[in-house]
Amino acid sequence: MTPVPLRIAVVGGGIGGLAAALSTARAGHHVTLVERAAQFGEIGAGLQLAPNASQALEELGVLKAVRRTAVAPPRLVMMDALSGDQVTSLDLRSPAYTERFSHPYLVTHRTDLHAALLTACEEHPAITLRTGHTVTHAEQDDSAVHLHFAETTTELRADAVVAADGLHSRLRQALVGDGEPLCSRYVAFRGALPADRMSGRMSQHAASDAVMVWAGPRMHLVQYPVRRGELYNQVAVFESDHYTPDSDAWGTEAELEERFGGTCQAVRDALPLIARDRRWPLFDRLPIDNWVHGRIALLGDAAHPMLQYLAQGACQALEDAVALGGALGRFTDPADAFAAYADQRRGRAARIQTNARRFGEICHLEGMGATLRNQLFASREPEHFDDVSWVWTPSPATLAIT
Ligand code: FAD
């Protein structure tokens, strides 16, 4: 039986919020999505979408649109950033990959993924999109949630609210109260540039469209093509020795140069073309159990902000959205649907959140630790997916949109 349509408000128009709006509307409900920015958008950098994300995008009906511009890389390759030697690789075109995973590994420009989700939301008759609406707080009673905004005194009344307002979620802060996100003392410099500007600066693997991870002591560089190969994405990440909690004067461009100064030729060739216009301090939080507070549920980075080392933050937000839609398609009471959604998702998201930190530590090993890592990884076969398959495989119940 299809539940009676609810009025659901989604706070935040990032990848998580748009995906949640889409899955909720596809489950038969009316959605109003509010975004604080004057225009919807994403930053000018790339995003890796493991097969669990492709599967979620298919469930949401947007995989075809995303594939028009996304690149399906042949391999993920880990290199030693100091020696320039290959550490290990995963063959994404091997029979072992297709036997194990039903969906492709993709890399995309964030704007392209965001645009595909936004178009699908705009085209859905049950979704209303509002920009320039900053939620200040929410009040709830037994029958509804009232959202209040900075820009207007007109409130929005909804049967239930999905808080997809990101890492610094105001709604999470009010409901969970677990303080500020935890800064890892690492920063990222990142951006996509026209691919032809990289000519002569790419290693052999990089030129074949592989996803490259150059792992080094307390730093790494990630590279891959996006937008049909027309753009090339680079992300340089390092730990700062000058972290101060209340200032932006750490993790500077000068530190970037210094930290990457001793790397191999291929990394140093790429360094001048890494975007410098903005730095991103990297945060996460410890996992929590209480994703649901009455008629308000957390989703995406608002629920489980994680370090990016497993490239799963957005992938998990997409899995959240599919699970949410599935639950809202099964239960009449939003509280029951939210409880089922959180039960399905929080264990897996927490495990990935925790393991993202661990994988970062492995990437950033130095000295003997790095030598042992390289020796251990050297015995891996490129067709061996046992260690990543739990990350790349959504739990079966995630596929439960009705
Ligand atoms: P956000 O993208 O933060 O969206 C939140 C939205 O809410 C924003 O639009 C914001 O304007 C809006 N908002 C905030 N407050 C309010 C308010 N009060 N009222 C109204 N609107 C509000 N993930 C991957 O899966 N693969 C990767 O390869 C990957 N690489 C990464 C690399 C780096 C360097 C970093 C930092 C992250 C990476 N991630 C990756 C993680 C990924 O970017 C995030 O997990 C994902 O974008 C989170 O989406 P979200 O919609 O939950 O939050």
Describe the 3D structure:
With 402 residues, this protein is of the alpha/beta class. It has a single domain, classed as FAD/NAD(P)-binding domain, CATH 3.50.50. The chain has 13 helices and 18 strands. The strands form four sheets. The chain has a seven-stranded mixed sheet. The N and C termini lie close together (10 Å). The structure holds flavin-adenine dinucleotide. Flavin-adenine dinucleotide binds next to helix 1, strand 3, strand 12, strand 16 and helix 10. The site of flavin-adenine dinucleotide has 34 residues, from helix 1, strand 3, strand 12, strand 16 and helix 10. One of its GO terms (molecular function) is salicylate 1-monooxygenase activity. Keywords: FAD, Flavoprotein, Monooxygenase, Oxidoreductase. Its cofactor is FAD. It holds the Pfam family FAD_binding_3.
Q: Which helices and strands, and how do they pair?
A:
Elements: E1 7-11, H1 15-26, E2 30-34, E3 46-49, H2 51-59, H3 63-67, E4 75-80, E5 86-91, H4 95-100, E6 106-109, H5 110-123, E7 127-130, E8 135-140, E9 145-149, E10 156-158, E11 160-163, H6 170-175, E12 182-194, H7 204-207, E13 211-216, E14 219-226, E15 231-239, H8 253-260, H9 265-270, E16 279-284, E17 292-293, E18 296-298, H10 313-330, H11 334-363, H12 367-378, H13 386-392
Parallel strand pairs: 1-2, 1-11, 2-7, 4-13, 11-18
Antiparallel strand pairs: 3-6, 4-5, 8-9, 9-10, 12-15, 12-16, 13-14, 14-15, 17-18
This protein binds flavin-adenine dinucleotide.
Flavin-adenine dinucleotide (FAD) binds at residues 11-17, 34-37, 47-48, 134-135, 164-167, 170, 188, 190, 235, 280, 282, 300-301, 308, 311-315, 317.
